Amino acid sequence: MQPDQSGIMQQPPQPVLVVNNLSCSRDDRLLFAELSFSLAAGQVLLLEGDNGSGKTSLLRILCGFRTADDGEIRWRGQTLDSGSYYKEMAYVGHADGAKKELTVLENLRFTQALHSQSGYDIDQALIKVELAGFDDNSVQTLSAGQKRRLSLARLLIAGAVLWILDEPFTSLDRRGIALTEALIAAHVRQGGMVMLTSHHDLTLTGLPLQRIHLNSCQ
Amino acid sequence: MSISAAFFAIIRRDLLLAFRRRAEAANPLFFFVLVVTLFPLAVGAQPHLLQSMAPGVIWVSALLAALLSLDAMFRSDFDDGSLEQLLLSPYPLTVLVLGKIIAHWLVTGLPLLLVAPLLADFLGLPAQAMGTLWLTLIIATPLLSLIGAVGVALTVGLRRGGMILSLLVLPLYVPVLIFASGAVDRAAGGLAADAQLDILLAMLLAALVLAPLPVSAALKMSVN
Predict the structure, then answer these.
(1) Does the first or last residue of chain B, that is N or C, have fewer Cβ atoms within 10 Å of its Cβ?
(2) Which residue range(s) make up the domain with A132?
(3) What DSSP assignment string belongs to B145-188?
(4) Which residues of A touch B222 (CB under 8 A)?
(5) Is residue A169 part of a domain?
(6) Domain CATH number, residue A171
């Protein structure tokens, strides 16, 4: 359960997100207990583990959707609700979070309105995820992979520091996977933070990558 | 972007969605018109009976139409993950939720307001009660959306919440029904209905301030 640190780190940077002794159980089954880790600017944290080991639950706790049974989470020294946490984070989960009757542009405009920080503008973000030219297509006409790319565009527009990604590579083609990895790498190099779960082997060369392995403990 | 931009963006988005799902969005209005027009057929052509029943018939139909439209308020947001994105917005959820409720009223309540006088005339409601009918609808249909939102937010996470939703919401709708149809009834008889209208207005103002709080809390619980 201990995070093993790998990758290159010259000097330990100041942690921004600190998680202390977190435990979570579901239906009387302990998913993880006394989990502690921290994340600093410019770091990637990869959650590994079998199906049902609690990866998604951990991410949902960090989004504030679930409450942990025990432990605390601090963002810049403050609790999630009191500080600037929600201004600085963005989440892509299993669901796309896009309205299928609306066009790509309409969906992204709404995303823009919901966030107080501004990141990329919509045109730039669509070029970055290679969806340029799809602005006026309604989301229901997009393929599953293209919807994934739309979610990534949402991350770019939100202008968040911390990206929480739950299986971001699902239904992406090889090019899409490479593109996502490039986006993650670029975000981290600019001082961003990424926390993700993936069954796919990440190829993020030269980036400080933290791995946490969640074992299903009974 | 500012909080007012987010508030108007959510209203605009929901109106656009309703426009794209026109057939679905028109359902409650269609139901309202259908029920009111079926009454004379079933009761028979007895002008005096219909006239005295008109306030009740219109208000019961409006209430059922509102109930019918409730489930759609948060359902699609819950299913496609948009609700999670709303919860993660740095803006207060209560404000965003109020935007959604207002959009819901614009789509389901406002059309009732436009056709109700026509249907009331059709049932033979005296002209002197028409103004009061309008007033009760203007005040009380938003109230139905606000109260209903609490019930929907509590049941949106349940797979089959329809029955529970009705059980939760109907008792809270009953006072609205009593005061609203009572006001129209009094006006039809040539009496003053100020007291009933004042009570409805007070309920609306209280709900406007108080309803978004439990709705936000219930939505947070629903995604858990």
Answers:
(1) C
(2) 4-211
(3) HHHHHHHHHHHTTSTT-HHHHHHHHHHHHHHHHHHHHHHHHHHH
(4) none
(5) yes
(6) 3.40.50.300
Is position A217 within any domain?
A: no
Q: Tell me the nearest-neighbour CA distance from A4 into chain B, angstroms.
A: 30
Asked if B87 lies within 8 A of A65 by C-beta distance, the reply is yes
Q: Which residues of A touch B90 (CB under 8 A)?
A: 84, 86-87, 115-116
Rounded CA separation A19/A34 (Å): 10
* pLDDT per position as a tens digit, A51-73: 888 889 999 999 999 888 889 99
Q: Is residue A134, in this structure, part of any structural domain at all?
A: yes
Per-residue pLDDT of chain B (224 residues; tens, 9 = 90+): 689 999 999 999 999 999 999 998 899 999 999 999 999 999 887 888 999 899 999 999 999 999 999 988 999 999 999 999 999 999 999 999 999 999 999 999 999 999 999 999 989 999 999 999 999 999 999 999 999 999 999 999 887 878 899 999 999 999 999 999 999 999 998 999 999 999 999 999 999 999 999 999 999 999 88
Interhelix angle B47-70/B93-123, nearest 10 degrees = 160
Residue A63 contacts B, CB cutoff 8 Å = yes
- Flag if B84 and A63 touch (Cβ within 8 Å): yes
Q: Do B80 and A98 touch (CB under 8 A)?
A: yes
Position A218 in a domain: no
Count the domains in chain A. Answer: 1
* Chain B residues near residue A65 by CB distance under 8 angstroms: 84, 87, 220, 223-224
Chain B contact set for A97 (CB, 8 A): 80-82, 84-85
Q: Between the CA of residue B162 and those of A149, B22, B67, B151, what are the distances in Å?
A: 35, 22, 10, 10
Q: Is pLDDT at A126 greater than 90 in this prediction?
A: yes
Which amino acid, B111? P
In whole angstroms, what separates CA B107 from the centre of its chain? 10
Residue of B nearest to A164 (CA): B88
